[in-house]
Amino acid sequence: MTATVSNLALRKAQTRDLRTDLDLTRDELSYLLDLTAQVKAAPSRYYNALSNRYLTLLFEKPSLRTRLTFELAIKQLGGDAVAVIGPIGNREPVKDIARNLDRWSNALVARVYSQDTIEQLAHWSKAPVINALSDTHHPCQALADVFTLGEKLGTLEGRKVAFIGDGNNVAHSLMLCCARLGANFAIACPAGYEPKESIVEQARAFGASTGAIVEVTRDPYAAVVAADAVYTDVWASMGQEAEAEERSVIFEPYQVNEKLMAAGPPHMMFMHCLPAKAGQEVTEAVAEGGNSVIFDQAENRLHAQKALLLMMLD
Ligand code: CP
Ligand code: NVA
């Protein structure tokens, strides 16, 4: 039977992509966090939940956490994964890659230079597409991060997260998820390195219904006032290596160090998606200090992605 445009559209509507954080409704996000807690508490209950489900991992950029936690997550759920490392779209168009992979695997997980590659994969693939980091978003990281915040704080409602540094992919996703869940978000960044205005506006629109306040400031000391967590990320993301030297000068006042930690409440957690460049965006003493939860975040990547795969593939 020849597929018509309308039945292709119907099949597409039944897949659930995670192109950006906006693909999850507030209910879906809450459901995912509850499921993450269940999967973490009783992993053996889910050992065969995704047997005979296969992931294709497409990674244009390096990864330790994301790639390995997706591979281990699907294997621990009874399925399996194959990974392809290298540029996407050089040898054949992205739309053809999508229409090959969706014949062989149940979901595509892609880490890409451009968000447009994720959009193209999602448009053409009948299997769900998960964004494993693009230039503008890192939704899987944000899932683990808001789960970690919930574990430590009980709730995100009325809490405050300060992000210090570059208004980048990690900042965008975290801002959206925090605002969606009612946590105030203050980001301090140098001029020219603010988060995208459209994403700030979207986060503020979420805040209008959850009560979350989203602030953009130049002053890291103002951002950490009354913050429950302070978060930072590298000053030069993957793909920005040529700017690293220039950025290390511009971002120097935005280091998370002992002085900045002392300006926040004593319980303020330190968070980082990793990998970190100790001595740049964070001092060794803060990253290794008693308030650091960086390895809890890394652990929770596994549990949160198991929940995501269960939601998409079960
Ligand atoms: N935080 C994170 O995404 O780590 P990787 O780059 O190692 O996947
Ligand atoms: N902002 C960083 C995150 C790495 C996990 C990057 O894109 O390189």
Put the structure in a nutshell.
By secondary structure, the chain is α/β, with parallel strands linked by helices.
Characterise this structure.
The chain is α/β, with parallel strands linked by helices and 314 residues long. It has helices spanning 5-14, 26-41, 65-76, 94-104, 115-124, 139-153, 169-180, 197-210, 220-223, 244-250, 258-263, 284-287, 294-313, and strands at residues 54-59, 80-85, 107-111, 129-131, 160-164, 184-188, 214-217, 229-232, 269-272. Residues 1-13 have low confidence and may be disordered. The strands form two sheets. Strands 7-6-5-8-9 form a five-stranded parallel sheet. It has a four-stranded parallel sheet with strand order 2-1-3-4, sandwiched between helices. Strand 3, helix 5 and strand 4 form a beta-alpha-beta unit. Helix 2 crosses helix 13, helix 3 (65-76) packs across helix 13 (294-313) and helix 4 (94-104) packs across helix 5 (115-124). It is built from 13 helices and nine strands. It starts with a helix and ends with a helix. Norvaline (NVA) binds next to helix 7. Norvaline is lined by residues 133, 168-170, 233-234, 237-238, 273.
